[in-house]
Amino acid sequence: MDQALSLWFLLGWIGGDSCNLIGSFLADQLPLQTYTAVYYVLADLVMLTLYFYYKFRTRPSLLSAPINSVLLFLMGMACATPLLSAAGPVAAPREAFRGRALLSVESGSKPFTRQEVIGFVIGSISSVLYLLSRLPQIRTNFLRKSTQGISYSLFALVMLGNTLYGLSVLLKNPEEGQSEGSYLLHHLPWLVGSLGVLLLDTIISIQFLVYRRSTAASELEPLLPS
């Protein structure tokens, strides 16, 4: 695992999921997006823990203790974020039930609040990290000329999940008084983060096919000349 997976891929992934989680709370995203973001962060922490476990299992390092401390800190932040959000100042009733028209440019729409601006920016950073995280893994596969040690089910399920995730957001009707353009703009970073990585995940899928055929062909070659 520590040779097949790129560390930068895992770090970019957990960075994107962490920003996705924080941005989902601040930008008042759909409940499904928030719950999914919490699960993503927890799953990423498990993967990162396994990576460093196998990395230093046979090679104890002085860095293992600081790394474990960082992982525990990130896990604590992931668990504390919902509590901090719930403990924040409660908006006035008219703010809570006016829908997601804060990004709307239509006449009469209210300005975008500072909290949601921060959430939108963090969500945009999340989508960029998602896109950049695939590049190190593509490079690692290319240099190794192999995808052994990587489960294709991981990327297949990620592609399926991102597709359904994006469709669930696109197919939901805007709230009353909110235009479709405003609704799409409000969720744009999360749509880019989910649907935008499909192309890069497709490239990784092609690498699985190409390198698997190369490996199978090399195994069929005779060991000794006839």
From TrEMBL:
The chain crosses the membrane at residues 37-54, 66-92, 112-132, 152-171, 191-211. SMART domains: CTNS. Keywords: Amino-acid transport, Glycoprotein, Lysosome, Membrane, Repeat, Transmembrane, Transmembrane helix, Transport. GO terms for biological process: amino acid transport. InterPro entries: LAAT-1 (IPR051415), PQ-loop_rpt (IPR006603). It is a multi-pass membrane protein. Belongs to the laat-1 family. Amino acid transporter that specifically mediates the pH-dependent export of the cationic amino acids arginine, histidine and lysine from lysosomes. This is Lysosomal amino acid transporter 1 homolog. It comes from Homo sapiens. The lineage of its organism: Eukaryota, Metazoa, Chordata, Craniata, Vertebrata. The gene is PQLC2.
